[in-house]
Amino acid sequence: MSHASVVIVSPALAAANNGNWQTARRWRRLLAGHHRVRIASAWPDGDADGDQVLLALHARRSAASIEAWSRARGPRGLGVVLTGTDLYVDLGRDPVVERSLHAAGRIVVLQPAATDALPAALRDRTQVVLQSCPALPPLPRTAQRLQLAVVGHMREVKRPDLVFTAARLVRDDPAIAWRHAGEADARWAALARAAEAEAPGYRWCGPLAHAAARQLIRESHLLVHPSDAEGGAHVVMEAVRSGTPVLASQVPGNVGMLGADYAGYFPQGDAPALAALVARLRAEQAQGVADGLLGRLQAQCEARAPLFDAAAERTALLRLVQHLQDCP
């Protein structure tokens, strides 16, 4: 494989501390031993080193960089990485996303179910790159309460309102604890504070640094992930790699990560179904049920964990870069 100079265009940089930035930083590290790699917020970025490969995160938000590359170089070397918003909100509705997809030499998706959302004509140019994170052991967990972690900046698509509603529905059980981490604008912050007042088990922790968020996941019995649209959520992968099972909305991005037969799904947008799952898990915990739903979820997540290993992600990325160098 010949060495390439790789630019990763991310619409979010370190200050955002979100999924795009985590992906960009990790890909830079995984590729660094094989290629020259830098992260930029846009292309061209003034670095005239004869770039051969551009990996653009987010078909819509990186559209200006994708268009600039396409005009200058055509599809060769251009990889467009799709987010959940690209796939499940904008695809088929936003002509900017359509142009980005058709400009790409390779289209990159972060979980296998995502290919089903693409037009058939684009699938032969699509590659799945499953993301990775270090495996960390779970932290000690009490049997006296069921702790649920919710991790993600509060936005409509992430459905924090489902968490607020579910917490209210099980508020009569003091042994159910919700710990919700993430940034919130004034509207969402007010709603979170209202949920705290009405559901004593719910607490909004505000934004956490990545290491602190990972620690919250490791010390919790479950991660709750109620999103409406996901390309391949970091937080789901981090939970799986921490021995923390997931309760997730049954949307394609989560199914692609956790598998079609996973037992921890609830219907998209269905707060009572989420609350019922939580109540069942707490009841089994209180009764000392050893082979109940929580054990089944743990076993299923343990089986998925090797998929999110760094060596597998590096291999997929190196193959992607080689394809982009070779494509006409």
List the defining traits of the structure above.
alpha/beta, 12 helices, 328 residues, six-stranded parallel sheet, 2 domains, Rossmann fold
Runs with pLDDT <50, length 5+? none
Q: How many E strands?
A: 12
What structural category do the secondary elements indicate? alpha/beta
Give the integer mean of the pLDDT values: 92
Short note summarizing the structure:
The protein has 328 residues and is of the alpha/beta class. It has helices spanning 19-31, 63-73, 84-90, 95-103, 160-169, 186-198, 210-219, 234-240, 252-258, 271-286, 293-304, 310-326; strands at residues 5-9, 36-40, 53-57, 78-81, 106-109, 126-128, 146-151, 176-181, 202-206, 222-225, 246-249, 265-266.
Write the layout of secondary structure elements.
Elements: E1 5-9, H1 19-31, E2 36-40, E3 53-57, H2 63-73, E4 78-81, H3 84-90, H4 95-103, E5 106-109, E6 126-128, E7 146-151, H5 160-169, E8 176-181, H6 186-198, E9 202-206, H7 210-219, E10 222-225, H8 234-240, E11 246-249, H9 252-258, E12 265-266, H10 271-286, H11 293-304, H12 310-326
Parallel strand pairs: 1-2, 1-3, 3-4, 4-5, 5-6, 7-8, 7-10, 8-9, 10-11, 11-12
Helix pairs in contact: 2-4, 5-6, 5-10
Explain this structure to me?
The chain has 328 residues and is α/β, with parallel strands linked by helices. The protein folds into two domains: 5-131 and 309-326, Rossmann fold; 146-307, Glycogen Phosphorylase B (Rossmann fold), CATH 3.40.50. The protein is built from twelve helices and twelve strands. The strands form two sheets. Strands 2-1-3-4-5-6 form a six-stranded parallel sheet, sandwiched between helices. Helix 2 (63-73) links the parallel strand 3 (53-57) and strand 4. The chain is elongated and about 65 Å long.
